[in-house]
Amino acid sequence: NVTACDVAIQALTKQASATAEDIIYGYGFNPEHFICNDEMTLQKNSTRWSRQILTQGFAFTLQKMYDDNGIFKDKKAILSFTNGGTESMFQPDGIHGDFNVALWPLQNGVLRFCGFQVLASRSSGVQHSPPDVRNAMLDAWQERLNSVFAEKPLSFAPTKHFDLTFQG
């Protein structure tokens, strides 16, 4: 987790006016807090960060939401995970199914809702990979991040097809 984060910080710092650390740590996120073997601690930290940052008034309002009008409409977001399995386990025909199905609530219901242009996620099973495979995963991650600002976001149902007016 930390190595993938370090690769991201390094690649994004070369491209952005603010460093990735400024962005990540400025919002109160510390990736080192997410290194744990206790799933409950991980869930608690993730939930706490989400509740502090992705809040009404800061990340969205009822007038400013979704990718066409949201507060973060000019920003891109990407989800990066390490998991305890191999890549084939998280394919549509894998034992755990398509990883993107599990990410839908985060991609659409949180990130897109706050206005982000959501990029395709990244997931890797580094725990069960030999060093040369881990290094290849990190190299591919760095290569992707080198052009991430030109990457096209995922496609979602257009908001114009929905009534987004709120009474009250």
From TrEMBL:
<keyword id="KW-0560">Oxidoreductase</keyword>
<comment type="similarity">
    <text>Belongs to the NAD(P)H dehydrogenase (quinone) family.</text>
</comment>
<dbReference type="InterPro" id="IPR051545">
    <property type="entry name" value="NAD(P)H_dehydrogenase_qn"/>
</dbReference>
<dbReference type="Pfam" id="PF02525">
    <property type="entry name" value="Flavodoxin_2"/>
</dbReference>
<feature type="domain" description="Flavodoxin-like fold">
    <location>
        <begin position="49"/>
        <end position="145"/>
    </location>
</feature>
<dbReference type="GO" id="GO:0003955">
    <property type="term" value="F:NAD(P)H dehydrogenase (quinone) activity"/>
</dbReference>
<dbReference type="GO" id="GO:0005829">
    <property type="term" value="C:cytosol"/>
</dbReference>
<dbReference type="InterPro" id="IPR029039">
    <property type="entry name" value="Flavoprotein-like_sf"/>
</dbReference>
<protein>
    <submittedName>
        <fullName>NAD(P)H dehydrogenase, quinone 1</fullName>
    </submittedName>
</protein>
<dbReference type="InterPro" id="IPR003680">
    <property type="entry name" value="Flavodoxin_fold"/>
</dbReference>
